Structures are given as C-alpha cells and as structure tokens.
Structure prediction request, 152 residues.
Amino acid sequence: TYEKLWLAASMLLIVGFIATVTYGAVGLGIAMIDDSESSINPDALDEDDRFTDPRVEEMDDGTYEAYVVAEQYRFNPDPLEVPANSTVTFYVTSPDVIHGYEIVGTNVNTMVIPGEVATMTVEFEEPGEYGVVCNEYCGAGHHGMEGEVHVV
Ligand code: CUA
Prediction:
C-alpha cells in the first residue's frame, strides 16, 4: 500500500541523511594529521593513538605532553593532571565540531578545529586547580562544557 511505500521512502531519506552526516564528520578529519598532501586518510585521527588514548605523558627530557580531546560536551582526560614546575605541550583536537580550550586565568586559550591539532606549550609552577572552559559555541551543551587542570 501507499503507507508502506511512504515508510520505506522516509527510511531511505533517514539513512541517506545519516550517511551524509557521517561522511561530513569523517571528511573533516583529513586535514592536518596527514602531512603528505598526496595521500588522504580520513581515519588518520581515529587511528592516532595520542587521541584514541587521551593522556599526559612524560618525555625523556623531563617535559610533558598532554593529548586532549575536546568533544560535545566534555574534555578528555578530565581532570587533566600535571606536576608542578613542569613544562607541558598540549595537543588538542576535536572529533566533532569547533570547540575552544581555555584554561581560565592563564593565557592558554585556543580554538579547536575538528581534525586539526592545536598545539601550545605551557609552564606550570605552583600547585593549584584551574578551570577549563569551551569558549566557542558548540551546541546545546556548550555552556556546560567544562573541565579541570590539576597542578599537583
Ligand atoms: Cu564545546 Cu562550546
């Protein structure tokens, strides 16, 4: 009957819509992780173990690297813990939409673009707790997108 036809047609439309959205999201992942312009690998970010396992890691030279994922609507890891008197290079990325990464009360404040990696090096001295906020409108949960950095 016509009813079934309409149902089938609307299902197709939904599947098509999801496919489009998925393609768009994955397509954005191409840009920056992949240095070589000739080969395009949309899964590069998904397979980048810095971001499949967000964390803080100590380097051989005693500095630290922090791999952070900003996504609707949280930061990972959270809280992010770093030692006092340390130098930390942040690598921040997003799997979904544009976010911000601001450590309140510091000059750490960057835009986080899907598929790209924002980098900044920060020195932490005294122990303390800092709030982290997203300062780019990223959707309904934007205002609740907060995290913490603990300097211990
Ligand atoms: Cu994420 Cu606003």
